[in-house]
Amino acid sequence: xxxxxxxxxxxxxxxxxxxxxxxxxxxxxxxxxxxxxxxxxxxxxxxxxxxxxxxxxxxxxxxxxxxxxxxxxxxxxxxxxxxxxxxxxxxxxxxxxxxxxxxxx
Length: 105
Description:
Helix content: 40-55%
Distance between the termini: 54 Å
Largest sheet: none
Number of helices: 5
Order of helices and strands: HHHHH
Low-confidence stretches: 37-48
Shape: elongated
Oligomer: single chain
Radius of gyration: 25 Å
């Protein structure tokens, strides 16, 4: 009797795990509705501060020379050993506020 109960419990556990791994079905409504989120105003503000054209997510499009030149520009203040701006200094903090931040993927 114990073996039968054990086998039934293992069967239910395997079935439960198999359902846990499936992705939920996507509806067509989510694809057809335009995205109206709180990040939309942020996109417009970053596009005004970019040196050249931007992508849909608001980051600078690096295919254009104006954006490449802006990325190569040296920061206003001192650098760390790895070449990134040292954020302990006021000049670097102010420069970071005026340029758009890159999003990590």
